TrEMBL record:
Its cofactor is Cu cation. It comes from Oryza glaberrima (African rice). PROSITE patterns: MULTICOPPER_OXIDASE2 (PS00080). Its EC number is 1.10.3.2. This is Laccase.
Length: 577
């Protein structure tokens, strides 16, 4: 055989092998009512997927196509969001209600179809309408195309998904409706959970309400940690064990050793754990981080636990010995939280330099925080004779989703009139001491409702300063951008000072994420390339704050080719009722 034909055969085999490695991962998610009893309460009817809490874990490999058929048998409108999936070419599958789609009505269905090209690590999925994500959520694990042997860290003996959540002894849909109608924030959770179970330290805890993970001594385990909680950042520890963080938000990091992981709602962390302790039983513990200064709204000052059980610990002398409990960080331990959030850097692979863009086209300075506003007409139980109600905003614009047409549909049809406006400001309308006492001024706290978006040209590089305010209270807001990862160049406390901050910019190996916990009473600088056409939601991942308006939308215009343009909507895209 000639060299020419040998080369062609080699290329053909390589192409076939590459194509064969990609697969279609298909699931049917039946969203319906599910009866569950926790904390010795009477059975509660919740909304769940396939009768599970958490819902099913989706396992895929980089490059696969994921297909999920949503069948809505619940009495509520429903959407699903694939948190952290970039959705390149599939913006109609992103999921936030009235941003990229109208909700799936009771009795309806919709098929989400998207690729996971160029992404590896731990992501997750959740409902993106009302407060349903309190019970409608699960993990999305994307392994390398070459399998576990292709990890850029020592191959673990086993992997465990660890999903942290919050639990209410109430119907969360009714709770959200009452909060909106009255203008009074919803109550805090009764408990935190690990894989849907609260653990041993709540009143009336039962053995079947504690998650268990079995390990073998000296084995290495990859913990895929997800904060699916609604409103609470959490500290996570394993008694007598240290962790090595190797990824965050499905982006690899340089190994970062720690005895505590901090995850804000929406974030994920991949951490290796060597089972190097004596054979026995040890608690995993998730406890709250309350960043608010002064003291914020009430929160559940409790601890969720799961049990890490060594093989061989079933012997009677060990089985009845209480598991070892880790020392819990103080609830207001901002120093530990900041050290963790700011300590990670990106793992640069295959000798490639960082992809952080160096030239910036658009600079934005965006304040994020709480405030007050007048009762809206739809808030029928709002006390209009009392002072203004709680609200929240970005650059003093408090976001409201449209009622009859999704933003993406209006964008695709080029019919924004009456749906949204393109005047989201690049800077705050008023400059003041954002983190000082001046924030007590009632005029500074007042905001108005709108549906403003920021329009970006295709391939535009954006640098955004996220500035926390002390309006009402300083607080660490977990800011999430749909459709993009971003580089975190720097973060700190107080008001952003450009001259000082730029000296600290990490342009070599900055961590890459899709959700950043902006330091309480502080700032963060992020940078990304707007190379994904569509309408992309940017919001605080405290659900209590989304409903108050702490959100906006990035409208990314089409590029020069069909492949860089928003495609037509799928035939089964839900219609607004």
């Amino acid at each position: 055989m000639s060299l020419h034909w040998s080369l062609l055969l080699f290329i053909a085999i390589a192409l076939v092998s590459s194509v064969a490695q990609a697969a279609v991962v298909e699931h049917t998610f039946n969203v319906g009512n599910f009866s569950i009893s926790q904390l010795c309460q009477p059975p509660l009817i919740i909304t769940a997927v396939n009768g599970q809490l958490p819902g099913p874990t989706i396992y895929a490999r980089e490059g696969d196509t994921v297909v999920v058929h949503l069948v809505n048998t619940s009495p509520y409108s429903m959407t699903l969001h694939w948190h952290g999936v970039l959705q390149r070419g599939t913006p109609w599958a992103d999921g936030p209600a009235m941003v990229t789609q109208c909700p799936v009505q009771p009795g309806g269905n919709y098929t989400y179809r998207f690729n996971v090209d160029g992404q590896e690590g731990t992501l997750w999925w959740h409902a993106h309408v009302s407060f349903h994500r309190a019970t409608v959520y699960g993990a999305l694990v994307i392994r390398p195309r070459g399998g576990a042997k292709a990890y850029p860290f020592p191959k673990p003996d086993k992997e465990h998904v660890v999903i942290l959540g919050e639990w209410w002894n109430a119907t969360v849909y009714d709770m959200e409706r009452m909060a909106f109608l009255t203008g009074i924030p919803a109550p805090h959770a009764e408990a935190y959970t690990i894989n849907g179970k609260p653990g041993d330290f709540y009143n009336c805890s039962a053995p079947n309400q504690t998650a268990k993970f079995e390990v073998r001594q000296n084995g290495t385990y990859l913990l895929r940690i997800i904060n699916a909680g609604m409103n609470t950042p959490l500290f996570f520890k394993v008694a007598k064990h240290r962790l090595t963080v190797v990824g965050a938000d499905a982006c690899y990091t340089k190994p970062y050793k720690t005895d505590v992981v901090v995850v804000s709602p929406g974030q994920t962390v991949d951490a290796l754990m060597v089972a190097s302790a004596a054979v026995g039983r040890y608690y995993m513990a998730a406890s709250p981080y309350d960043s608010a200064i002064p003291q914020g709204p009430p929160f559940s000052d409790t601890t969720a636990t799961a049990i890490l059980q060594y093989a061989g610990a079933r012997r009677k002398t060990v089985r009845w010995r209480p598991p070892v409990l880790p020392r819990r960080p103080p609830v207001n331990d901002t120093a530990t939280a900041h050290r963790f959030f700011s300590g990670m850097t990106a793992l640069l692979r295959h000798g490639k330099p960082s992809a952080v863009p160096l030239a910036v086209d658009t600079h934005m300075y965006v304040t994020v925080g709480l405030g007050v506003s007048l009762c809206q007409p739809e808030q029928l139980l709002c006390n209009r004779s009392a002072p203004p109600v709680f609200s929240s905003s970005m650059n003093n614009a408090s976001f409201v989703v449209p009622k009859n047409t999704s933003l993406l549909e209006a964008h695709f049809r080029r019919e924004p009139a009456g749906v949204y406006t393109r005047d989201f400001p690049d800077t705050p309308p008023v400059v003041f001491d954002y983190t000082g006492d001046e924030s007590d001024n009632a005029t500074m706290q007042f905001t108005t409702k709108s549906t403003k978006v920021k329009t970006l040209r295709y391939n535009e590089t954006v640098e955004m300063v996220l500035q926390n305010t002390r309006l009402i209270a300083k607080e660490s807001h977990p800011m999430h951008i749909h459709g993009f990862n971003f580089f975190i160049l720097a973060q700190g406390f107080g008001n952003y000072d450009k001259r000082r901050a730029e000296r600290r910019f990490n342009l070599v190996d900055p961590q890459e994420r899709n959700t950043i916990a902006v330091p309480t009473g502080g700032w963060a600088v992020i940078r990304f390339v707007a190379d994904n056409p569509g309408m992309w939601y940017m919001h605080c991942h405290f659900d209590a704050h989304i409903s108050l308006g702490l959100a906006m939308v990035l409208e990314v215009l089409d590029g020069p080719t069909p492949e860089t343009s928003v495609p037509p909507p799928p035939a089964d895209l839900p219609r607004c009722s």
